Amino acid sequence: MKQDKIELIIVFKKDIDSQNAQIIIDKTGIKHRKGMDSSRGKIYFYDTGPKFILTFDTEQEKERIMAEFEILNEIHEVYTPDWEKSKD
After folding, report:
1. Which residue, among 70, 13, 85, has the nearest Cα to 44 in the 3D structure?
2. In what helix (H) or strand (E) does residue 24 lie, and over which residues does it extend?
3. How far apart, in whole angstroms, are the C-alpha atoms of residue 11 and residue 78?
4. What's the predicted TM-score (pTM) here?
5. What are the extents of the domains in the chain?
6. I need a labelling partner for 36 at 20 to 30 A (CA). Which of 58, 78, 84, 85 fits?
7. Are the C-beta atoms of 64 and 36 separated by less than 8 Å?
8. Which whole number is the average pLDDT over 2-9?
């Protein structure tokens, strides 16, 4: 049975540019990729900044990073993705 990836979505505030967001994400040392723009054309897309998907080796590592990012002023939201939900 294939094990699901341990992932976390990081959404920056609108006024944080991509370069600064990338610097903040890079400091974690966590494997990541740019977030998707499936909300393009919707208010949420235009009211938020850069988005990233972080992939973890352990749930403990994910929980630690989640706690660190939730208190940063640059962050709009942090959440665990549910790839089964269709948002459109």
Report:
1. 13
2. helix 18-26
3. 6
4. 0.83
5. 31-52+74-83
6. 58
7. no
8. 82
